[in-house]
Amino acid sequence: MDEANPLTLLGILLILLGVVFVALPYLSRVVDVEKIPWIILYVYRRDGFTFATSPILLILSALSLILAYVRR
């Protein structure tokens, strides 16, 4: 079997992370996610509405957009 391309592995990892983050609001209703540090996972709940995000991923995304813009 051929060795996997690193970009392929990165793509698979990002897809899996995406699935996890899409499922987090639903999982947070069942599992206690309040024990996870807020910088890794931030959960907002109000009147039956649940929003979960990762501040680390938001920061990394913003930095990658800034770097892509600067390199132009």
Major β-sheet annotation? 2 strands, antiparallel
Distance between the termini: 38 Å
User: Proportion of β residues?
Assistant: 5-15%
Instruction: Give me the count of strands.
Output: 2
Shape: extended
Structural class: alpha+beta
Gyration radius, to the nearest Å?
Answer: 16 Å
Task: Walk me through this protein's architecture.
- With 72 residues, this protein is of the alpha+beta class.
- It has one domain (6-71).
- The chain is 58% helix and 14% strand.
- It has 2 helices and 2 strands.
- It has helices spanning 6-30, 55-71, and strands at 42-46, 49-53.
- The protein has a two-stranded antiparallel ribbon.
- It is extended and about 45 Å long.
- The mean pLDDT is 82.
What labels would you give this structure?
72 residues; single chain; two-stranded antiparallel sheet; 2 helices; extended; 2 strands; alpha+beta
Give the arrangement of secondary structure elements.
Blueprint: H1 6-30, E1 42-46, E2 49-53, H2 55-71
Antiparallel strand pairs: 1-2
Question: What is the structure about, briefly put?
Answer:
With 72 residues, the protein is an alpha+beta fold. The chain is built from two helices and two strands; from the N terminus they run αββα. It has helices at 6-30, 55-71, and strands at residues 42-46, 49-53.
